[in-house]
Amino acid sequence: MSLVRVHNFSISLDGYGTGEGQSLDSPFGHAGDRLHGWFFQTRTFRRMHGREGDTGGDTGVDDAMARTWSDGIGAEIMGRNKFGPQRGPWQDHEWQGWWGPEPVFRTPVFVLTHHPRPTLEMAGGTTFHFLDATPEEALRQAREAADGKDVRIGGGPSTVRAFLAADLIDHLHVVVVPIVLGRGERLWDGLEGLEQRFRTEAVTSPSGVTHLTFTRR
Amino acid sequence: MSLVRVHNFSISLDGYGTGEGQSLDSPFGHAGDRLHGWFFQTRTFRRMHGREGDTGGDTGVDDAMARTWSDGIGAEIMGRNKFGPQRGPWQDHEWQGWWGPEPVFRTPVFVLTHHPRPTLEMAGGTTFHFLDATPEEALRQAREAADGKDVRIGGGPSTVRAFLAADLIDHLHVVVVPIVLGRGERLWDGLEGLEQRFRTEAVTSPSGVTHLTFTRR
């Protein structure tokens, strides 16, 4: 069965998945890179963003958790704010995401936006589709594109929250980073009682973060 | 040096230290006993609320963390909502707290309230003083009463938050319970950057909770 999964979704102690003030230079606003420091140290990150045979980076529990990100994934759905810092109607179509000419996804990626634009074919197998749709409809299209494989919900917080609220998520991996961000966009809002639909597991890492895993009951 | 400490302070994933709708039957509102299930299983809890020689209850990491609650403590400061469910002027002075005739504290306890009332001498060494004061002034009085020992800030969330905001806390032990409460009173609000003043440590327990320890740098 094709599952819907969230991986490596980092939040602060106070539940913020991104800070305030996203811009071209600050994809996560005032959070900077503090939410993802644990990830940058992993071998998985180095291989995603460097050479495939890179043997650097840490290989402990952070890496083991990070690594499952791509296993069996056939498509991703992301919110527009994960794709870029622009708001409202596109001024032009120059922006092609934060990830350069060969994005890390290597699958179809469905970007939820009220302002659709033409599909973007990137090098390395990533195709960005732009979609004004409900979570249910976006998932239907992503599943079709995934051809039997799993669908990843890539973020940001409001996108993950919308899919959780619609009870569409089967596997949720959240990484709690021991910082208090104070402002930004929260993950847990409006999800009272979420834990009743999942088995939960928590494990800490020497890097100081706590990995939470929610698996659908 | 006399330290200011918080122990066994349980919060939900979304940061609530208590639920909504406190009443005589529900000290933690709609949270019920879900925030403290981990604690009820410990030997420390059983000894606090039962016989001193009780050898029942779990003795793993939850118990080890819970147990440090009373070591070297000479006084506690708590908010009025920890003391009881009443709001506004006292209708009478019948209410003597949730803890029965012999409360677990066994030290002077300073209850912060805009409506002071006469001191309550309880069995077993607990004395409730009622105080309309700033965190700084309350701490001054509690330190004097503690006679060189440490002072515990007992909660609830707004009281702990006020002492953290005033930078008066030296040791903070928070227990994150894997539930999403959705409403109630949050611990972390207004504390952006708190982690910069502390070394932090996280450890999970087989009970599913995560113990966070903040130690002043």
Describe the structure.
The structure is a homodimer of 217-residue chains. With 217 residues, chain A is an alpha/beta fold. Chain A has a single domain, classed as Dihydrofolate Reductase, subunit A (3-Layer(aba) Sandwich), CATH 3.40.430. Helices cover 20% and strands 27% of the residues of chain A. Chain A has helices spanning 37-40, 43-49, 61-67, 80-83, 135-146, 157-165; strands at 4-12, 16-18, 73-79, 108-112, 120-121, 127-131, 150-153, 171-177, 185-186, 198-204, 210-216. The longest helix of chain A is centred in the middle third of the chain and has 12 residues, at 135-146. Chain A starts with a strand and ends with a strand. Chains A and B meet through strand 10 of A and strand 10 of B.
How many independent structural domains of chain A?
Answer: 1
Helix content of chain A: 10-25%
Q: Please tell me what the overall shape of chain A is.
A: globular
The interface involving the most residues is between: A-B, 28 and 28 residues
Secondary-structure map with pairings?
The structure is a homodimer of 217-residue chains.
Chain A: E1 4-12, E2 16-18, H1 37-40, H2 43-49, H3 61-67, E3 73-79, H4 80-83, E4 108-112, E5 120-121, E6 127-131, H5 135-146, E7 150-153, H6 157-165, E8 171-177, E9 185-186, E10 198-204, E11 210-216
Parallel strand pairs in A: 1-7, 1-8, 3-4, 3-7, 4-6
Antiparallel strand pairs in A: 2-9, 5-6, 8-11, 10-11
